Each structure stands twice: as structure tokens, then as C-alpha cells.
């Protein structure tokens, strides 16, 4: 563990507390992006509108958003830039989305939902839940967006008693059309949910993107307080590590670019996802602003695709690859897949490991067990639009896609250190597979 002498303990606690506050405040993807934008504002970054001309100056600090669901931040070096040093993570998480016209009535009032992403459905049962997201509200001139959070214990998805469902512990198949419909109240609250939204929006609601979230707060636990649990650790733990490294980095000759995208959990194919023109368009405009052809900049560029990884499970170690099974608090995980679901190859792995070594951060490797299909992430999607050497990295965690996940306190510190070193680094390609990092 990295804090044996106690000297760094107060700093670690402060950074972990800030991470926990970020996790608790990020009740939807829109709230996560809002938190990131507020952080950038406090650190002197200027918000750019996509529809305006961009006047980029040496030493300038900027960010741009798309659909209030994704953000890209960057800095312009004082001298002639060599290329881009980019990170990509995602701010969405598996959850349930509230349907429009969603009130269902039987003996109680319930809210109709549909699944967003691939969650572990059983983990949502019998827990206090609420709703957060965005409303589109009518105005005299058109519509405006408003973030909303119904900040109360609002609903629960009650389990059926075991006496009425004797197979619930025997490979029970959860049905999202019946089992995971949250109960809002008794019949007296008919119409109340729509009224709450209208009151919060301050006008007629013309549309909404509203999601369930868990009311349980992030917590640190364990004999040595070495573990943390929270909602959306996949992937807000990496998002936080990347943005902190981006903000703490030393000036370099490259352009640091921090990206947080929406829609990763449903394939990234959205206007604000990694499989959109958002990143490529921003890079083109940066290149124009610094007066260098974007292809030249990309020839000396790199991407860290940061998304959490599966830790070897304490009760089921047989599910992991025996020689490539990362552990929680074991350091940054470098992820591999021969079929390019993860983009890491020997070249990008060498760069990522060199960066981590310079930062004093241990690394681990992850492969799926050959007979178990794994997931994928942003790297191989974004590479179809911005083709640069890319390493897929992450932090080891348990219970990925549960509504309440578990990861490591020390790993949270490791990724901040690694990404600080990464964003402080300039990369120059001298030949295929040969890099100067300084």
C-alpha cells in the first residue's frame, strides 16, 4: 500500500472525500457532466460554444460540451504543440430510464421503466430510489433544459416474498416488464409525479430524460479503510482520476485533452458518445486554432481509454484468467483483447507502463478467461474516428454493473498519479513503434 509512513494520509483522505462527493452528486450522466464543468470553471477554464468562432491563445484553458451529456477540455501550450495527449472515459452507468406517460395504476401507483445498459437487475430490489436527469421545459421562445433531482427517498422496487417465489434463489430470471417496476405510492398520488416535474421545471414539460438512482451514499470500508463502494464507480472512478490528473499536470509540449462521453453502456452510438464526431470535430478546430494540420498533430498523439476492469473475485477466482487477474488496490490495469475489444497492443502497453512507472504507480494486466466473453469500452470505438495509438486501462473492481459497486481506495490515488504524469508528458514518434516521452 502506498501510504506506509503516514505523510500522504491527509492528502489521500481529502482526494478520496472529493471523489466520494463527486460520486454522490453525479446522480445522472447530466449531473456528472455538470459537476465536471463546475470543476473546470473553478480552475479557470473557459466554456466554448460549438456555434461560435474559437479564438484559442497560447496558455489558454478551454472546454466544450455536447447535449449536456459529454465534455471535452483542453489546454493550449505556450509553444508550438507537438500533438494531443488524450484520455477518454464515460459518465453514464447502467440504470432504469423513466418512460413518458409512465404512471401505472393497479392497487398502487408505479412508474414504468426500461433498462439502460446491462445492469445486475436483482441489486436494485428493496432499496430506496429516486429520480434525476433533465427536463425540456417550454418557454415563450421555445424550450430550455433544466437539471432535476427529486432529492428524497421516493420509491422502491419490492421483491416478491420467497413464499410466493420459491425459485428466487435458483437462477430466477428477472422480467423488466414486471419485476423491476418501482412503486411510487398508493392511489391517492395519481398524477403527482407529473406535477412534481412541472413544478421543478417551472413550466410545461415538453420532454424528459429521467433515470433512477440509488439513494445510498458512497462509503469507505474495510479493516484498513482500503475499499470503497458507491454507485457508478464504472466509470466515474476513472473519470475522476483522469480529470484530476488533467488539472494537476505540468505544462508540456503536447495539447492535453480530457474527454468524458455519454452512451458507452449502450454502444456509444449517440450524438454525445465516443462513436460520434464530437472528439474529431473538436480536434480539427484546435488544430485550426494553433495553425497546424490535424494529421500532423495526430501523428504525435496518444489516447488513454480509461474504463474499469474486473478484479479477480474473492469467492469465484475460477472466473478469471489465472495469470492475468488483477486485484483491487493492485494498481492501474492494462487491458488486452486479441479481437480488439480493448485496443491495447504491445506498443501502447509499453507507453502506458512507462508512464505509470515514472509516476511510481504499479500496473497489472487483464485478459478475459478464454471461454468467457468480456465487455468492450470506448477505445476501439473512438479509434474509428481518431486513429492514434491507444491503451485501454482501468481500475480493478467487484460487482461491475451492480447498482452499488466496490473498488479500491488506493487505486483511486494511483490513477490520479498516473494521469498527472501522463498529461505532463509530450510524445514524439520517431519511427513506427518508437516514441520519445518527455
CATH superfamily of the largest domain: Zn peptidases
Number of domains: 2
The strand order across the widest sheet is 1-2-3-13-4-14-18-16-17
Mean pLDDT: 93
Q: What fraction of residues sit in β-strands?
A: 25-35%
Q: What is the overall silhouette?
A: globular
What does this structure look like?
This protein is of the alpha/beta class and 438 residues long. It has two domains: 292 residues, Aminopeptidase (3-Layer(aba) Sandwich), CATH 3.40.630.10; 120 residues, Roll (Aminopeptidase i, Domain 2). Helices cover 25% and strands 28% of the residues. It contains nine helices and 22 strands. The strands form six sheets. The chain has a nine-stranded mixed beta sheet with strand order 1-2-3-13-4-14-18-16-17, sandwiched between helices. Helix 1 packs across helix 9 and helix 4 crosses helix 9. The protein is globular. The mean pLDDT is 93.
SSE layout and pairing:
Blueprint lengths: L8 H17 L3 H14 L3 E2 L13 E6 L3 E6 L8 E7 L4 E11 L2 E9 L12 E11 L2 E8 L33 E4 L5 H10 L3 E10 L4 E3 L5 E4 L2 H16 L6 E7 L16 H13 L3 H5 L3 E5 L2 E2 L21 E4 L10 H14 L3 E4 L12 H4 L7 E5 L1 E2 L7 E4 H15 L3 E5 L2 E4 L1
Helix pairs in contact: 1-9, 4-9, 7-9
